[in-house]
User: What shape does this take?
Amino acid sequence: MRSRFLFIIFGLVSFIFSSCSPEHSEIVVSKFGDTEITMKEFEEAYAKNVGGIEQAKVDSLPKLQNFLDLYTNFKMKLRDASVRGFENNESLSAELLDYQRKVGSSYILEKQVVEPAVEKLYERRKEEIRVSHLMVRATAGSNIDSLRQVAQIYLDSIKNGADYETLVKRHSDDNFSKTSGGDIFYVTGGQLPWEFEDAAYNTPLGQVNPELVQTKFGFHIIKVTDRKPRIAKIKASHILISYQNSEGKIDSAAAKLKMDTVLAKLSAGESFEDIVKQYSMDPGSKDKGGDLGFFERRMMVKEFDEVAFNLEIGQVSNVVKTNFGYHIIKCTDKQPIPPFESEKENLKKVYRQGRFNDDNNILIDSLRSKYSYQQNQQTIDFLLTNSDGFHFGEEHPKKDEISAMTLFSAGGKNFNALDVLQRIGQDKEFASKELKSEAFEPALKKISGEMLLEEDALNLDKRDPQFASLMKDYRDGIFIFKLQEEEVWNKLSVDSTKLYNYWGENKSNYVMPDKISFSEIYSAKDSLINHYYSLLQFGENFDSVAFKYTERPGFKIKAGNYGLVDVASSVLSREANKLKTPGEYSAPFKNGAGYSIFKLNSKEATRLKTFEEAKPEVSGIVQEMESKKLENEYINGLKNTYSPQYFYEELQKAFKQE
Assistant: This one.
């Protein structure tokens, strides 16, 4: 009974202690004044500093302790910045605001436009589709409405049962594809105008898209004839029998007979590579067993591409006829779609070159609606009629007047004409253009869009925690920079006496290495270098020969002279250093892709540097020493003020919570 009672009491005490122990994230690892640094904050800061949680988990306890010291100092500095009222400093606030506008704009575009589009593009590129189209071409001066009506008639005919391929052959304006029923072969994401691509990917296999698709080329009626998982790249070898004979004349009959011989040898079991060496007429691949390396869709001619991409690894094709001749193709390898992260940057380039501008315009139009954007036509009319001879980037003759004029308003804020004109003048697309309607309208559209994006960025930290964290990091950074300026850099004083005294105490650390001055005659040909050497042996002056003949770019005018350089600075200087007597020259010797003759001009043995020679190095070291001294004094002052405490033993639990 008593033992049972003790067990209950022990269990109760354990429960009380476990209930009172803090959660892992709330463990205090250091504190100063009334500020506590918790395990959660420490772990987040440390992981960010070392590049991720996985690295943090394997780092040693001394590394964690050292970081805790630094992080506590950092937090004490931020507390000091608050005491000094940096949050209310107009200059710092203006810098923060400017940063939020600029970085926030880029952030919005990246997160809301680029990243989603790139992810979608990556997913789309996992598939390839074969597409045909009937095109009604638009040219400069075309009546778009009339073209649309014509294209709609063709589309309606197809919907009513007319044969698609027949209509294409009769009416398509794409002369390249019309003879093959409009076939433009296999495509994947990022290869076509985005309007065409979207419509094609949204069209079921074997069907015609029910809507006209308009691109900059005109109107398209799209049909999808195949869809399949995409192979990123294949590696193939081939045997080519050209239509041209050895005399350069076309002889397709002889080519066919030669290919028949090749087929017979393959059937008899001879190796593909051996037959390539005997018969292939492709000089670029013949010596490599016919290997063409890796290639993507559409990099080879259509007939070759279609067969090659349908082969399995190790499979050999039948005879393939192209404009180049007869081919037999062997697939030797295939590459799958690369992981997203490895493709990300390349896809961003593809996207920015393609549909980014259109997506950006869609975003800006949504902001115009969100902020009730309104242009002031009266101000626009004033600018167009009172800006004769004015070019963007110049000072406007009526700047005082227009600085009080609203050019547009958005979100309850007025944007004056002078500010907008100055922004236009800073844009290289419009700088120096005259303020006329044809230049002003696109300029205003672009710049007002940028300014709207910046305005939207001013509220981004309130709706995006990740950006709010980025802004906090930047704010902390400029506060720390300001503190360093006030406590270290503004107090830093390094005069010549300090520098001279330090140099005097540490002269042995400042040594001038062995130096050499030499000249060179260089030629890419051994016959020429030997000729130049014979000229020297017959008494011609080395500098004269070098001035006339050396082939090293930029050295002829210097008569091959390299000046005074460290002996260890290059292969050339080390080779020249083998010469003993000034005026002595070497025999010709092989030097990389060419040949050289060196002449020794002078040598300087190692010695201690003078104060003036050592001054730049000494200055850097003394400044660093003084900076560290002032930094330590500042940190010690903070420690005296805030009396920090460090609970290093708690760090043994860091990154152990699953």
